Amino acid sequence: MTPSTQATFDPNLRSGTLRRLKASPEGLKSPSPIRLPLPRWYLIALAAVAPAVLGAPLVLTPGASGFVVLTPLILVTGLCCAFLCLRVVVHDMLDDEDDRFSNLVFVVGAPLVGFVFPTWWILLIARMLAAEEPSVTAPLMPGTPGAVVLWFLPVVTLVVFLVVRRPWDTADLAARHRDDYVIRADLRFTLSAQLLDRLQRVTARAEHAHLVLGTPVGLDHALPLLRSEEWRLARECLHLDQLRGRLVDSQREGTSAPLGEALAPQWSVLEEATERLTEEVDRLDAYGERIQTAVETHKEWVRLQRVADQAGDFADLAARTPTADPGTPNALDDSLHGAEAARAVREEMIRETVQATADLFRGTDGSKSP
What is the pLDDT of residues 152-199, one digit of tens each? Predict the structure, then answer.
């Protein structure tokens, strides 16, 4: 079976959160090791804005030291340069991977290092020469509009970059919702992975059938149920996989007869639970096969109907062709009958799918009852 790259999500997740998590399936495999209440980029932006706002009176007070104006510029430049160096060392040199984010850091960091530091030193030199040429630094002295611009510009630049790029957003979001999704990488054993793949395939087939067949089949009501069942069974699959891992690890630690006898009842309970889970997955999979058959039947009818719709044009062409086969009109009429037969099969399959959907609701209610 082809490995699945999808994830099974808690159906109670907010739509915006679900959309952001689905947008980066690879990011779900490597969530941040630390669960933070807010994304890291948001915390960094707050950490930059708060001191800038609190320290604003320093640049609004005439007569304060001119070096105070350069504080945000120095701190933001140092932060960006430090991050750039760490990114180069940790990511590019150690991992030796090419990454779009690394390229973006180089694009932003190179001009920052190339222009901010020279500007900084020029301002310092101009400040030292201010005794002889006060007009050089007067527009940037505390209490002037230039000082306010120089104070807030580095912070605003950093915040804009963080808001636009949102670094680590997927990793932080995945960490905060790590208990709200299950992926194949969470499972150690092939049986568990196969069950999860089948669950995800049923929902994918139902979503596709809903787009192809529309609402008459009742999939608009069945989809929420299928997503709920997929999540419930995926969580059960993960739980059984973890229990199986514990038993396997216990067996690897020793092979004595008393240990085997102690583990035997646990293995028996696990196998019974796995069998029940497999039966539930089989029930959903059978429903998925039914709606897949309905989709294929519908597509076959669409193709035959397209051929039947153009039969009239070919009948006119055959009538204008003296050498046409006398049996051609009958053959063209047969294409109409083929479309009608396909339509009858399609309608029957849709009726069976509607009945299967009703049976699914009843079977699901029965499986949840004690």
Answer: 888 888 888 888 888 888 888 888 999 999 999 999 999 999 999 999
- Distance (Å, rounded) from C-alpha 107 to C-alpha 92? 15
Q: Residue 165's closest CA among 258, 83, 68, 69?
A: 83
Other Cβ atoms closer than 10 A to 3: 8
Helix axes 71-87 and 100-111, enclosed angle (nearest 10)? 140
Per-residue pLDDT of 22-31, as tens digits, reads 888 888 888 8
Separation in Å, CA 167 to CA 74, 81, 117, 163, 348: 22, 16, 24, 9, 53
289: left (phi over 0), alpha (psi -120 to 50) or beta: alpha
Residue 205 CA to residue 8 CA, distance in Å, equals 14
- Cβ proximity of 99 and 168 under 8 Å: no
Structure tokens at 270: 């696990």
Cα distance between residue 18 and residue 351, in whole Å: 33
Q: What is the pTM of this model?
A: 0.69
Q: Rounded CA gap, 272 and 163, in Å?
A: 51
C-alpha span between 57 and 194 (Å, rounded): 63
Residue with tokens 């949102």: 166
Judged by phi (left if over 0) then psi (alpha if -120 to 50, else beta), residue 174 lies in alpha
> How far apart (Å, rounded) are the C-alpha atoms in residues 146 and 166?
29
